[in-house]
Amino acid sequence: MFDWIFTFFHFFLFLGVIAYGIFSFLQGNYPRGITIFVGLTGYYFLVLHKGVKKEIQRKKEQK
What we know:
Number of strands: 0
Structural class: mainly alpha
Shape: elongated
Largest sheet: none
Number of helices: 2
């Protein structure tokens, strides 16, 4: 149960930060938008990438 809560919390947080980055670009605050997207890229590779690769491999093995 905790895994689902953790997953959805981070997914919606990730989407919210992406929306904030886009909003920053639309407002003309380019340094903030770039910083947000660089941070999101780092977050993906440091936190999410390993789990995503494992899930893709698990799905391939099921077929």
